[in-house]
UniProtKB/TrEMBL annotation:
Source species, domain of life: Bacteria
Name by which UniProt lists this protein: DUF397 domain-containing protein
Domain DUF397: 5-58
InterPro entries: DUF397
Taxon lineage: Bacteria, Bacillati, Actinomycetota, Actinomycetes, Kitasatosporales
Native species: Streptomyces thermoalcalitolerans
Length: 63
């Protein structure tokens, strides 16, 4: 089993415990996403789908 290296959003700030966290699993090309207040609830998706989501969010923010 792979141990995931969780990274917090740069928008988390102040050491709060209400943060989005992601971890990349290179073994199966997936991204795991969770909220730090409920770390047992993890959403897993493909790296391609996650990249598409981030691209769409950035594009929408520029409009």
């Amino acid at each position: 089993m792979t141990t995931l290296d969780w990274k917090r959003s740069s928008f988390c700030g102040g050491g709060g415990n209400n943060c989005v966290e992601i971890a990349v699993n290179d073994e199966n090309d997936e991204v795991a996403i969770r909220n730090s207040t409920r770390p047992e609830h993890v959403i897993r998706t493909s790296r391609a789908a996650f990249t598409a989501l981030i691209t769409q969010l950035r594009t929408s923010a520029l409009r």
